[in-house]
User: Fold DMT family transporter from Fulvimarina endophytica.
Amino acid sequence: MVSHPYVLLALTTLFWGGNAVAGKLAAGHVSPMLLTLMRWTFACCLMAPFAIAHVRAEWPIIRRHLVRLFLLGACGFTLFNASLYLALNYTTAINATIEQSSMPLVVFVLNFLLFRTRVTPYQVAGFGLTLVGVALTASHGDVTTLLTLSLNVGDAIMLFGVLVYGAYTVALRVKPDLSWQSTIFCLSVAAFLASILAAGIEYSLGNTIWPDLTGTSAALYTAIFPALIAQSLYIKGVEAIGPNRANLFVNLVPIYGAGLAVLILGETLEFYHLLALAFVIGGILLAERGGRKTWADSAKNAGPSHPG
Assistant:
């Protein structure tokens, strides 16, 4: 069995990169909110046998923090994934993965604004580079469109999802002290409950698309690989080499995502995509270089900084 942390973390980011591709494949085969509901239904069922014992042992803590856990799961898991799958009905998987790669620096900015986390010149420069990369992606290589606000609606929805997940990650500072099995399971159950509401609203508006084989397969992939296996591998990787070094592997997500989108979906990799990737990854690496201790402390308090 493969156990080297670099391999575990490389597989983690590969599965996360495939999440956007699966969502794009599902477009037109299952509606976004129903896909989100199916994802968390499958995830809860698959995870339950491994988590129930931990939940029972830690139930007194869980019961005291039910509202907090529900809000974390509803926002971080349901609202983010619903935004991703909805966005992929209007934009490309390449765009979505590049825009998601700004997540670590969104967390950095929110930590600075809310908790006055120390800022270094490297972090400021890195944040600036990442903004350039995201702007290039969202504007499809023509940043002048930002001045007229004529952005693709899918890119706008994806950027909203990035902000939501960034806020969720910062909010994990106040999550109760539970085992990772109980934490992920409780958040997944909360996501399942919130997804019922979202799917119900979608149905009432007449926008539900019932899943065919492609839609069901995409939902199974998102539940098994990004939601369960990747999160477990990420935790093992963090335990082996520490959160700061493990967090650098998140930079592989847009690379994997773009590659899979080209190979599986036949999307075109434009020059501005390559330029945006260079800006985003360079910005994150620059910020990491200037604030490793700060980021390590933040990671210990906040947990994983990328959605699964």
In short: Residues 213-241 form the longest helix (29 residues). Residues 98 and 152 are 15 Å apart (CA to CA).
